[in-house]
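Handout for the seminar on molecular recognition.
Each group receives one record of this type.
Step one: identify the two inputs.
Step two: read the structure output and locate the region that could contact nicotinamide-adenine-dinucleotide.
Step three: write two sentences on what you found, then compare them with the reference statements printed after the record.
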Amino acid sequence: MPGRLDGKVAVVTGGGSGIGRAAAVLFSAEGAAVAVLDRVAEAAQETAETILAAGGQAIAVTADIVAADDVRAAFERVDTELGPVGVLYNNAGVNSSGSILTSTEEDWDRCMAVNVKGTYLCSAAAARSMADNGGGSIVNQGSVAALVGIANFAAYCASKGAVVALTKSMAVDLAGSGIRVNVICPGTVFTTLMRPMLAARGGGDEEKGLAMTVAKYPIGRLGTPEDIARVALFLASDDSAFMTGSVVTSDGGMTAQ
Ligand SMILES: NC(=O)c1ccc[n+]([C@@H]2O[C@H](COP(=O)([O-])OP(=O)(O)OC[C@H]3O[C@@H](n4cnc5c(N)ncnc54)[C@H](O)[C@@H]3O)[C@@H](O)[C@H]2O)c1
């Protein structure tokens, strides 16, 4: 059976862990040659090796998406070693902690830099290549935190709101170049990123914080990295050919209440 990303080159940022790793593996299983981009070299390498061991095509690319030079070099390397990028999953992101009263300026700057500027830099690099090569699909990583207020996540909520707005702006600007841009807003997914938040919510008890969080989800469980990866695959592939600028929640009904 043909894969839904056959012949495509896909860049997955934050591909060394969590949702990004699941997406990189799934994109490869659907026929893409995958550039696993991560700030942590060993993490990117581990995902790339998982793909290679399964018979897929992958390279590990170490880059900090906040650094313009890193991003430029990373996309040049992808173009040289795999070919023109057709899919970009802007998945890399960091959390913040604290409310508007308790968070720090450093926390704000870091969160906005990785989640917003990183998405901007990678999108600009990919879009230039896509525009010259017949188009492509950019999938951004938002969060339910872009749609509803989440306690003690001020900078994170603001950064993901900016990603949603950037998605719509890019969708309008890039449609004429054959580039679609959509954003996923996942609910809580049990990954390393979320463990400190769950522990904090439970007053230091991760199990308690987990139970409190699950109670907010009508479906009765948290998401898995694979749940979100499958949505990313749909948006990356031609299955979503008439979608651009869409905000797609994958949150077990959390924001439906
Ligand atoms: N886990 C959740 O509950 C959840 C919910 C909604 C949205 N999200 C979003 O999904 C994305 C992935 O989250 P996850 O839970 O899989 O996180 P994770 O921490 O497991 O993985 C994030 C990856 O991004 C990489 N990364 C971080 N900063 C980077 C940088 N500057 N340059 C390059 N790589 C960098 C990390 O090294 C890591 O491998 C994030 O954007 C996050 O905000 C997560």
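Reference statements: The CA atoms of residues 5 and 145 lie 29 Å apart. The longest strand covers residues 179-186.
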